[in-house]
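Q: How do we represent a protein-ligand complex in a form that can be generated token by token?
A: Start from the inputs.
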Amino acid sequence: MNELMQKIKDRDPAEKEFHQAVYEVLQTVKPVLDRYPQYRQSAVLERITEPERMIMFRVPWMDDQNQVHVNRGFRVEMNSARGPYKGGLRFHPSVNLGIIKFLAFEQVFKNSLTTLSMGGGKGGSDFNPKGRSDNEVMRFCQSFMAELFRHIGANTDIPAGDIGVGAREIGFLFGMYKKLRNEFTGVLTGKSLNWGGSLIRPEATGYGNVYFAAEMLATKNQTFAGKTCLISGSGNVAQFTAEKALELGGRVLTLSDSSGYILDEQGIDAEKLAFVKTLKNIRRGRIREYAEKYPNTIYTERDPSLGFNPLWNHKADCALPCATENEINRQDAENLVRNGVSLISEGANMPSTPEAIDLFLDHRLLYAPSKAANAGGVAVSGLEMAQNSMRINWPREEVDGRLKIIMKFIHKTCLDAAAEYGEPGNYLAGANIAGFVKVVDAMLDQGLV
Ligand code: NDP
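Then emit the structure tokens for the protein with NDP bound:
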């Protein structure tokens, strides 16, 4: 296994997030390979860590001042053993091939945990939508889709949103796909409601995260009622994680963006959260404006020289990271433990560094890895695909009910797999093992392809 890890690093030395994601999985699935030698004989690890296909392309576009820009587009089609490639598109200046490969790799296991028929993929661009006009974003999306349309399709590869790609971007991308292909199909998920979207899809990742966390609490005979929560991010996942935590009686103390975070000791209630939604989704403003509107709040500017994020250094019961990868390092984890946090449920993808995770596991905290905790988003994307195929729309209660059942099932699957392999209560091991076994069994059934 060490040999394989070394080979992966030597082959693509710059892809450190991908190495991190692969290493975590390799470590936790070792007992499965020891128990079933056929997996090693069939080189499943070598196969599962190499994408089936990677597409990289130039995305030229023109800004409102007629200036030409060139960005890079990516789609990594990681694994289609369990269904068509499925996973979001991220538009953020930090995007590179290593980030997209890590996200695609994680997506394979996550999608398999949902039980729905979906393979794994991910894509995006280093385009930064921040500060761009709607017309600029539209021109970028059209240029991006002018290449991507060749590679995707309702039965091949179905992208969705991620950081920087919300309802506006999905609309522009879908419009261009429809024009180029001359067909109206469910090729993207996260669509608006009046043209093929599903109720609860915008809420699904955040709601699912809290449903999973509530399941973990239930194993200790606890609920969210009265629990204080630290939440990072203020985008899609953070907003709906906060909304569901509030609905279940939790108290939300923090939100953030890439410039800084707000601490509202009185709690971010439903009315304040509505302000955040308008601020972020419509006005596209900064979280610091929350502190201008609600003066009892403390705003702290981000300071990378600190070496830790002060957002994670407040007394609380739960931490729900919902911004981005590696946002909780070892020192943040130590601060969380010292402040009495007993539950961490990851809305963002891979938000905790390996050293932080080790600390959570050593302290036997309730720790839900992103593959399991944020699988609700792609699960409801799967339900959107099902509705599109049947050309019907399910009511809100039906989709939410199915989401709850899926999250409950994923929770049980993780616990069962962890116990079966001698790691009771270790959701990380459980999620990796359960996701892995389903995917590699499907790969073995389908031969060497
Ligand atoms: P959004 O773009 O809606 O929001 C992202 C939030 O995180 C913003 O508040 C953003 O701040 C902040 N953020 C982004 N990058 C950084 C950074 N480098 N440092 C600090 N803050 C940052 O994205 P989502 O809410 O959709 O995604 C959040 C996380 O959840 C990601 O890890 C994503 O992969 C994951 N996820 C999303 C799913 C979905 O359905 N949307 C499904 C599963 C996982 P700012 O506005 O300043 O950029």
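The domain at 50-185 is CATH 3.40.50.10860 (Rossmann fold). The two ends are 22 Å apart (CA to CA).
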